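Revision sheet: structure tokens.
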Amino acid sequence: MLHPDAELRWASEEIGLGVFATREIPQGTIVWVLDELDRRLKPEQMAHLGRRYEPLLERYGYLNAAGEWVLCWDLARWINHSCDANTLSSGWELDVAIRDIAAGEEITNDYGSLNLGRSFACRCGAAACRRRVRPADFERLATLWDARVRNAFPQLMRVPQPLWSWVPNKRTVAAASRRPERVPSISSHRLVRGREGVRPAASARRSP
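Predicted:
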């Protein structure tokens, strides 16, 4: 479930479509939550579907720690990568704005956290662009991503949260806003290799 103050727009000829904020989204806002309409495909389901579906999942899905392909039902599948992303995932299945996102700004995430199977050339244009996003970025950057999420978490209960009703573990998440060191590491999303049914994508897009 994507934050309601977001819409699909043309980003550029090079990138294509992207998701943009229609109003300011403050730091600490929950921008995306995995919900029951998001589809989770187990490796055996992928084997049954066949290889013709691989390009679609590689473009619009991501692999979770269980080796399932997650395909978001809404505009979240159009969120693009940035090496200076303004949202990141916690160890829970929700993404948080790690800084204020201005109205009209593109909402982005870091694909390095999405269990990539191979690297891809990056065209995000950020000053801190890594030029190439690699599977090894997960281990190298997880601590930095965790720090940025935990820095934003004290704002969680101080800003509007349109997605709050979709958060499954509300009491635990709310408590972590007072003790951000209790926010679980994004490393809990790391895939144990060998569990995936389809090779992960070197995609230019993601579902969060």
